[in-house]
Amino acid sequence: MPRPLRRRRIRFSPEVDYFKPAGVRMVDLEEVNLTRAELEAIRLKDIEELEQIKAAKKMNVSQPTFNRILSSARKKVAKALVEGQAIRIKGGAYEMVRPRGGRFKAPARGGRGRMRGPAAGGPGGFCKCLKCGYKIKHTVGTPCNQIPCPKCKTKMTRA
Average of pLDDT values for 40-56? Predict the structure, then answer.
């Protein structure tokens, strides 16, 4: 009998939990299941740019386990992109931990849909670079995520 899985610590819950290729009917679509722990591993390593040892500590796993989780996640995402499959984010043995002032706070509401959270800022507001913190006034009709930061060329987000 295998050992029971240790619960991975997760600090981020996505608002959207299903991604599908445009133009493919749901009937014809195959799915790849990405666990919450795998999504968290990608977030910590690729978005937060943490070293694997630090990311592993945040998830309450060893560094080799973190590497296996990350490799599995990247393989699933690559497979879905190459083969035109949908990605469903759900499941896994995890424990939700309250983030300590992090950037990635998602509302505690469920469901799918568009124009929630920072993307639904209305006509005013600012576009902010998550990497360097640079802010510019939002231009109506141009989504912030399509504007590169003038300083570091990273895509901006709504602030």
Answer: 94
